[in-house]
Amino acid sequence: SSQRHGYCTLGEAFNRLDFSSAILDSRRFNYVVRLLELIAKSQLTSLSGIAQKNYMNILEKVVQKVLEDQQNIRLIRELLQTLYTSLCTLVQRVGKSVLVGNINMWVHRMESILHWQQQLNNIQITRPAFKGTTLTDLPLCLQLNIMQRLSDGRDLVSLGQVAPDLQVLSEDRLLWKKLCQYHFTDRQIRKRLILSDKGQLDWKKMYFKLIRCYPRKEQYGDTLQLCRHCHILSWKGTDHPCTANNPETCSTSLSPQEFINLFRF
C-alpha cells in the first residue's frame, strides 16, 4: 500500500509503506536510499525480524537496479559500507543478542554485502555506441549551466575527469561558489575561508572543507508526507481520503530523518 496510518514502530511503517516500488521511481530513489542509510547507522536494532528481512530485500533490489542501470554507483557503495560497518559493530562489539535472528543468518547477510560491493567495483561503464551530440559539443554557457545543476562536488570532479575541456570548466570559481552557497549558510562559509596562492577565495577547497564540518542540504524529487489531520503517511502527490476542509494545507513533507523521528518516543 502507498499509505497507512496508525503505525506504532519504525519497523511497522517500513514494512507497510511501498518502498520496493518507490525505488523504481527516479524521483523517490535517493529518498529511499537515504532512509536506508539512516536506518543502517542507528536504527537496525529497532526493526523487528520481519522488518529487518524486508530491509535486506529492498537493499538487494536497490543494488540490482544500480547494476542494471549503472547509475548512482557511489551512492550505493557508501550505503553498503555504512551498513557493513554497523553490522560489524553490532555482531562483534555489542553482541549478537541485539540483532533479531540466528547469528549465522547475519553473517550470511554480511557476506552478501561484500559480494554486492565487489559487483559494484567490477562495473565497467560503457560508452554509448551512437554518434550524436555530446556534452562537449554544446556551447560553453550550456555546459556550465548543466554543471550548475549538480549538487554534489564529487560529481563535478568526476565530470572534469572525462575530457580536458570539462576539466577546465569544472574548476570554474563561480561554479564552486554557487555550490557552497547552495549547501551552507553565510556564517558557516565565513568560518571556513581559504585563500588561494593568488589571494582569492578558493571555493573548491572551501566546499570540501565545509562538507566535513556541516551537513549538506538534502534535495529530493519526491518525499513522504504526513497529513496532520488524518495522521496518514503517503508519498507526495498520492491522494488519500482526507476529511479536513482544506486537505492541501494539512500535509507536511518529511525528510528521511524527520520520518525516522516520528517513531522516537
UniProtKB/TrEMBL annotation:
Signal peptide: none annotated. One of its GO terms (biological process) is protein ubiquitination. It is found in: Cytoplasm; Nucleus. Pathway: Protein modification; protein ubiquitination. Keywords: Cytoplasm, Nucleus, Ubl conjugation pathway. Its main location: cytoplasm. The keyword Cell membrane does not apply. One of its GO terms (cellular component) is SCF ubiquitin ligase complex. Substrate recognition component of a SCF (SKP1-CUL1-F-box protein) E3 ubiquitin-protein ligase complex which mediates the ubiquitination and subsequent proteasomal degradation of target proteins. Probably recognizes and binds to phosphorylated target proteins during skeletal muscle atrophy. Recognizes TERF1. PANTHER family: F-BOX ONLY PROTEIN 32 (PTHR13123:SF6), LD30288P (PTHR13123). Part of the SCF (SKP1-CUL1-F-box) E3 ubiquitin-protein ligase complex SCF(FBXO32) formed of CUL1, SKP1, RBX1 and FBXO32. This is F-box only protein 32. The lineage of its organism: Eukaryota, Metazoa, Chordata, Craniata, Vertebrata.
